[in-house]
Amino acid sequence: MLTQLTTLDGEATAISNEDVDTLREGISGAILMPGDDGFAEATLIWNGMIKRTPGIVVRPASAGDVVTAVGFARDRGLEFSMKGGGHNIAGLALSDGGMTLDMSAMRTVDVDVATATARVGPGCLLGDVDQATQAHGLAATLGFVSETGVAGLTLGGGFGYLTRQFGYTVDDLIEVQLVLASGEVIRASRSENADLFWALRGGGGNFGVVTEFVFKLHEVGPEITGGLIAWSADEAVGVTELYRDLTEAASRQLTLAMLMRKAPPAPWLPEDKHGRPIVGMVVCHTGSAEEAEQDLGPLRSFGTPWADLIERKPYAAQQSMLDPTMPKGMHYYWKSEFVPELSDQLLADYRAQFVGLEAPANQAVLFHIGGALADFADDDGAVGNRDARYVCVIQSMYPSDGPAEANRDWVRSAWTTLRKYSTGGNYINFQNADESDDRIAESYRDNLSRLAMVKAKYDPGNLFRVNRNIKPV
Predict the structure, then answer these.
(1) Model pTM greater than 0.70?
(2) Residue 140: is its pLDDT beyond 70?
(3) Domain presence at residue 43
(4) Is residue 208 within 8 Å of residue 181, measured between CB atoms?
(5) 90 and 150 housed in the same domain
(6) What is the pLDDT of residue 358?
(7) Cα–Cα 20 to 30 A to 345, which of 103, 120, 267, 362?
(8) Are 143 and 208 in the same domain?
(9) To which H or E segment does residue 210 belong?
C-alpha cells in the first residue's frame, strides 16, 4: 500500500508502507497518519482559518529523532514543516500533505538559578517557561499569550511586556542547538557559528530545526502591578493623548498597550456596557508597589473608567491574562506595522477606524516597546527594527460562519490608513498567509540580503520553506 505525500514542488509522491515502517523504527517518538488516534490533536492550530492536513506527523522525542525525520523528508523531497505551539497566524506549523514535525514531546524547561539561564525545549509554550522561571523570581522576555509557542515567537524576534527593559526575545537568546537540512547537529551562539546565530535571531524557521534554546533570565516578579483599565470610547480623544504622554515619559518598568474595540460580554463590565465601543489599556509595571502607584496615578485618575482591574498580581497571571481573548479555533486576520511616534494625525486616524464599527471582536492595538531595543546595535540579530517605539496591530477575530470578507476588508482598510506612519518595518510573526514577498522584505529591510546568504550556506536546497520564506542566493 502507498501513501501519497506532497513534495517540495507541490507535486504528489508515493511513499510505501515499508518506507513508513523504516521511519517508525528509527524514531523513539510517535508517527501519526490521518485517522490515527492523536492525529487531530497534533494538527490542531490556533488560527481556524488555516485548513491544511499533513500527510504524516512525526512527534520526535529527541534531537536524534529530528535528524531521522529531516533525513527522511530531505531524501524524498517532501514538503516539511515544524509545529511548536501552532500559534502562528499564517498557519506555518502545518504542511499540507507533506511531513509535519510536532515538537510537543520536547517540552522541558531546565532553570539554572546560579547562572540565571534556562534551557527550553522546542515544544514549550510561554506558560511552561513562565511557570518554571517564576518559581525562582526570574523571567525571559516572552510574548503576552501563554499558549504561544516559544520556538516560533523567538525565531521571529519576539516582543512582550519586558521588551522595554530587556529588548526583543532574541536579545535574551544565548545559544541554540539545531538540526540542519544536511542532518548535522550543531550549536550556534555569538562565538560559534555566529553567522547562523545572527540569522536565527529573527529569521524564522528558515535555517534548521531548533532542538534547544538557551535563554538569559532576569529578576522579575514574582509579583508585578498589572491588569486592564477601560473607558467609554466617548473619552477616546483624552485617553489616546494620555497614552502618548505616559508612554513618552515612562520608565522602562512600565509597558502600556492601548486598544479600541467593542466591549466584550465580560463579567468585569456592567451588562449594559456590553457591545458598546471602548478604549482601554493593558498595563504591566514590574517595579515596586510604590513606584507603580506613582507612575500609574495619572492613568487611574483620568476620566470615568468603566472598569479598573489594575492590581498587584503574579507576573505569570499577567502573562496569561489575555488568553481568553484569543481562543484556539477562531478565525484570525491581522496586519502590523512598527511605528516611531504617535503624532496627532496618527491618533486621529487611529480613533477614526472605530466609527460605525460593527464587528464585535475586532480591535486595533498600539503596543508600547522601544526602551532597551536601542541598547543594541541596529544589526544585532536579523530581527532589526530597533527604531520602533510602538507596534500597531490591526486584528480581526470571528467564528467560522462569520462575515470573513467584511472583517478582512476592515483590517486592510485600517492598515492602509495607518501604515503611512510606519517606520517601514513590520513584525514577521504577525504576517498572514496571503502576504506577498514584499512584506517579508519590509520586515527585514537591510538585513534581507544577508539572510539570503546565510540561507544559501545552511539550507541551499530550501528544505525549510514552510515559513515566511527567505530564498537562498
Answers:
(1) yes
(2) yes
(3) yes
(4) yes
(5) no
(6) 66
(7) 362
(8) yes
(9) strand 209-216
How distant, in Å, are the alpha carbons of 65, 259, 262, 290 from that of 274?
A: 50, 16, 8, 33
Provide the total of helices (H) and of strands (E) in the chain, helices listed first: 14, 21
Give 402's pLDDT tier (boundaries 50, 70, 90).
confident
Greater pLDDT, 473 or 139: 139
CA atoms of 368 and 202, how far apart (whole Å): 19
3-state secondary structure of 471: coil
Among the listed residues 398, 459, 470, the one whose alpha carbon sits nearest the alpha carbon of residue 431: 470
Q: Render pLDDT for 220-275 as a digit per residue (tens, 0 to 9).
A: 999 999 999 999 999 999 999 999 999 999 999 999 999 999 999 988 898 999 98
What CATH number has the domain bearing residue 197? 3.30.465.10
How far is it, in rounded angstroms, from Cα 300 to Cα 41?
Answer: 43
Tell me which residue range forms the domain holding 52: 2-105
Cis peptide, bond prior to residue 222, ω within 30 of zero: yes
Average pLDDT over the chain, rounded to whole?
Answer: 95
CB 261 within 8 A of CB 362: yes
C-alpha Rg value of the chain to the nearest Å? 22
Contact 439, 412 (CB under 8 A): no
Closest CA to 284 of 255, 308, 309, 259: 255
Tens of pLDDT along 304-355? 999 999 999 999 999 999 999 999 999 999 999 999 999 999 999 999 998 6
Q: Is 198 helix (H, G, I), strand (E, B) or coil?
A: helix
Residue 316 in any domain: the answer is no
Which residue(s) pair with 6 in the sheet? 12
Residue 170 lies in a domain: yes
Q: Which of 41, 76, 105 is the last residue of a domain?
A: 105
Other Cβ atoms closer than 10 A to 113 = 13
User: What's at 279, amino acid-wise?
Assistant: V
467 part of a folded domain: no
Sign of the torsion angle spanned by Cα atoms 157, 86, 50, 417: negative
pLDDT digits over 416-461, tens only? 999 999 999 999 999 999 999 999 999 999 999 999 999 999 999 9
Domain tally, the chain:
2
Task: Tell me whether strands 138-139 and 185-189 are parallel, antiparallel or unpaired.
Answer: unpaired
Q: Give the bridge partners for 175, in sequence order.
A: 189, 214
Per the CB < 8 A criterion, the answer to whether 388 and 369 are in contact is yes
Last residue of a domain, one of 72, 88, 105: 105
